[in-house]
Amino acid sequence: MDGDTSLCPIPLYSIGELARLTGLTVKTIRFWSDEGVVPPADRTPAGYRLYGQDALARLGLVRTLRDLGVGLATIRQVLEREVTVAEVAAVHAEALETQIRTLRLRQAVLRAVAGRGSTPEEMELMHTLAHLTDRERRRLIHDFIDNAFEGLDVDPGFLATLRDAMPVLPDDPAPEQVDAWVELAGLVQDEDFRAGMRRAAEDQIRARDEAGQPDPDEARRLADLIRERTTEAREAGLAPESEAARPLVDELARQCAGLAGREDGPEFRRWLLERLEIGNDSRYERYWRLLAVINGWPAPDMGPAVEWLIAGLRAA
């Protein structure tokens, strides 16, 4: 009967023929067939597998998904319409993004190691710290904060500032950012640094109990004033111990007394000097400088201002 296609044989292919048509190896096609992603349509009397036309399309899709790193179990779900190709693509795009970021971090570590001539031990440490996830980096900083200030009646705003300022390595960090992260991780795990931070916090609590809690906005304005005026003095070559610096030291001391609600005088200046000396740990300034390098923030510059004022108060 002309036009009757029901009697036309459906073409079937052996594994060898599929291999020639697709460029895949016989071993690969057999393995995928055993896994159920490309099942045979029939078998020869001798038991050899035969595949229909749909096997060509399936093999093309399986090869594409495998090249993208999709597992056979997921591919089977796609072929059985349990999940869509779009859903699989979205998940694997996110996974690839993570892999790309990991590779960039590895590249940054190698660059940093090459630049600093690291020992094998340093390289292992840098590799470990650089590959911590964002969550693990945050946990390391939170552990430091919890340990250093546990049980203290610390100003909640101060703790919030510390917890908000987390190290966030970019996807493609520069060697100096990797170096800064490694140094910061070592600093926050240093017991002496933690103890120093705790002593400074305890002193701030005592100062608050003695002088009251200063207005945060007023405290920021005073900090800005001290930074600006001492920067001008340093740029002008004005030594804090000199007689010429005395009017500026007096002015800043009066401003500090006003913020503390106390009268300026020898007793207050001894109190102020003690507060400044206890809180002036260079490693605390280093902590914020390292965070600034990692996160691309402006570098803090309060340390030199405090040091200048300390020297001026000592000489007064």
Q: Which percent bin holds the helix content?
A: 55-70%
- Major β-sheet, in short? 2 strands, antiparallel
Note the beta-strand portion. Answer: under 5%
Which strand order spans the largest sheet, edge to edge or round the barrel?
A: 1-2
The tally of beta strands, per DSSP, is 2
The radius of gyration is 34 Å
Q: Which consecutive residue ranges, at least 5 long each, have pLDDT under 50?
A: 1-6
- Reading the helices and strands in chain order gives HHEEHHHHHHHHHHHHH
Average per-residue pLDDT, rounded, comes to 84
Shape: rod-shaped
**N-to-C CA distance:** 118 Å
What structural class do helix, strand and pairing data support? mainly alpha
Tally of individual helices:
15
Task: Please give a structural write-up.
It contains 15 helices and two strands. Residues 1-6 have low confidence and may be disordered. Helix 5 (85-116) runs antiparallel to helix 6, helix 5 packs across helix 9 and helix 11 packs antiparallel against helix 12 (246-260). The protein has a two-stranded antiparallel ribbon with strand order 1-2. 69% of the residues lie in helices and 1% in strands. The chain has helices spanning 15-22, 26-34, 54-67, 72-79, 85-116, 120-130, 134-149, 156-164, 175-188, 191-211, 216-235, 246-260, 266-279, 282-295, 302-315; strands at residues 42-43, 49-50. The chain is mainly α. It is rod-shaped and about 110 Å long.
Summarize the structure.
This protein is mostly helical. Helices cover 69% and strands 1% of the residues. The protein has a two-stranded antiparallel sheet with strand order 1-2.
